[in-house]
Amino acid sequence: MRSRRDMEMDLLKLGLPKQDLDEALVNLIVKDTQPFSVVADVGFRAFVALLDPNYVIPTRQAIKAMVDAKYVLESNKAIAEMKKVAAVSLTSDMWTSIWL
């Protein structure tokens, strides 16, 4: 019987397409509000290399372009959804703290 480690290594060898990994990286940066420079961090690069030694991490400039493209895509989706509705209700809860 094969060990768990051998099976995990086989899964790692399969890898994911670069496009899927790039999209996951963009989601990490957007959802966790990470700076684009995270891709240059030594610890991050070492972690990614351990996960997938073949993955080439995009540059900060490439990540920025990917985030911009995702913003445009998601904005267009939101606009399309808003065009379908008959009415929108907005609420606000505002207060002032005496401690500010």
From TrEMBL:
Subcellular location: Nucleus
SUPFAM superfamilies reported for this sequence: Hermes dimerisation domain
Record keywords, A-Z: Metal-binding, Nucleus, Zinc, Zinc-finger
Domain of life: Eukaryota
GO cellular component, one term: nucleus
InterPro entries with a match to the protein in the record: ZnF_BED_domain_contain
Record-level Gene Ontology MF annotations: zinc ion binding
Coiled coil: none
Name this protein carries in UniProt: Uncharacterized protein
Native species: Pogonophryne albipinna
